[in-house]
Amino acid sequence: MKTYKEEHKRATEFETRSEYLDHELQIMKPRRYRLNLPGRDFRFEWEDLVPAFAGTLGIIAMYSSVMMAWAEGLTEAWDHITLGKEFAIEVSRVEMLIPALLFVILASGFFNPKANLAGNHGPMIPLIASIALAGAHPLALAILIGVFGLLLSFFKGGSRLVNLTSKGVAGGLLIFLGFSGALVQIETIQNWSMGLESGTIEAGSMGFLGLLILGVTVILYSFLARIEKRWLAIPACAITALILALIGGASFDLQFTTEVGLPNLNPVYWWGNTEEGWMLGLPNTQHFLASLPFAILAVAMWSPDFLGHRIFQEMNYPKNTEKVLMDVDDTMTMCSIRQMVGTAVGGGNITSSWGTYMIPAAIAKRPIPAGAILLGLMVIIVAILGFPMDIAVWPPVRAIALLVGVFLPMIEAGIQMVRKSACSQAAGICIFTAMVTNPVLAWALAMFLDNNGLIGDKDRPKTLSKVDKLVIPLAILIVCIGAMLAVGMLESSYGILPYL
């Protein structure tokens, strides 16, 4: 069998750039848990800059949101703790430095290109305040998530769950998450523009600016889709939003406060002294018990998250590219280890598959490794410089990047998957259940009903064993309901917010 290096051809030998990228995906032979080298096993292409840039924007926004949620929740939950923006930024920079080097550049870039990058668990962000108030400890939570994730990946549970989820259920999940997430980002931009106030300009009088940014974004995104350049959407639309906001008079709202430098990288500073860092000290038994239901819930959410990212690869990659598709179990392994290591050195992120990287990478027809290396370098540079974080978290830039890079492609992919009437029925039930409860419970319930022929394709149960039809789906449904009851998610009107 010929190697990648032997089968590689110059881009000039193909009629179109798209054909060249297709060929690259078809000849790649990633080495799992062995060294992959540029030139021998993969190449850097300028298209890799797009998912790298998109992932960098997304993760800055995500990490900042997570750490601010922890700061607010712990300050409210504990009398001796007062944490604010400075704490959140410093912890975000810790998360961006060490995990980027170990688990983005080295793990997904060089040693296992079939494992998607370990990023952020968006659906858990709204729950962080509840986690803190319940008496949980970030380090205890990270250890439990890591252990549960490693067990699931060891027994190949992640890939099996992906295979048990039909296109109808997966499509419904994508449509709901896409629409819900898009509405959140639109509301974010509108609230930002309506709240602008400077000098003689009263709050609310600049509401037109948000509408203008959204209108131009729709036109630009449609144009890029028309010329088949959607993979440029995040940088093109985010930069355009930045320029429009500055020209429109919102420059006073963009403030640079983060200085150049390194955060404290000593784990003892963060966890060893209760008067510094998190001010919590090391976790005890009570902390682990309080963290347990949230850890179960976080890992239960991984499979539909991973499934959505792999689907984007399957829909955008050409035929005969199975070797470069992300491996769900390998991704779960990397996320589990990264969760424990990243938090042990002082971080606080809750990890999942990196959607703001994978979705643009799939659309751009690029495999994981080259973009992962570039993204890791970008994240490290941003963490050291500091001030780019202020730009990336500015509402018009952050919201537009997430809107065009994650949520609109999710809607498109979901619609493409539910063309058949049987698929649309399963998708409809999944969407309705998600509206009433939350996306995770919707996925579990719809999968159980679909695999038993109660909705969707009536012939589907004939292809499944009793374990796949009843035992696994029912067990997942019971675990999800139990975990959600334990943390009070089913008592609220809509459970959790959508993926961010």
Summarize the structure.
The chain is mainly α and 500 residues long. The protein is built from 20 helices and no strands. The protein has one domain.
What does this structure look like?
This protein has one domain (44-168, 258-491). 66% of the residues lie in helices and 0% in strands. The protein is mostly helical. It is built from 20 helices and no strands. Helix 3 crosses helix 17 (395-417).
SSE diagram, text form:
Blueprint: H1 4-7, H2 17-27, H3 49-77, H4 85-111, H5 128-133, H6 138-154, H7 157-163, H8 167-194, H9 207-226, H10 233-250, H11 267-271, H12 285-316, H13 328-344, H14 355-363, H15 368-385, H16 387-392, H17 395-417, H18 421-436, H19 439-451, H20 466-487
Helix pairs in contact: 3-4, 3-14, 3-15, 3-17, 4-13, 4-15, 6-12, 6-13, 7-12, 8-9, 8-17, 8-18, 8-19, 9-10, 10-17, 12-14, 12-20, 14-17, 18-19, 19-20
InterPro entries: DUF3360
Pfam families: DUF3360
Organism: Winogradskyella endarachnes
Cα distance spanning the termini = 43 Å
- What's the quaternary structure here? single chain
Tally of structural domains: 1
Given as residue ranges, the uncertain stretches (5+ residues, pLDDT < 50) are 493-500
SSE class:
mainly alpha
Tell the overall outline.
Answer: globular
> What's the total helix number?
20
Cα-based radius of gyration, to the nearest Å:
22 Å
Q: What is the tally of beta strands? A: 0
The H-and-E topology, N to C, reads as: HHHHHHHHHHHHHHHHHHHH
Largest sheet: none
Helical proportion, percent range: 55-70%
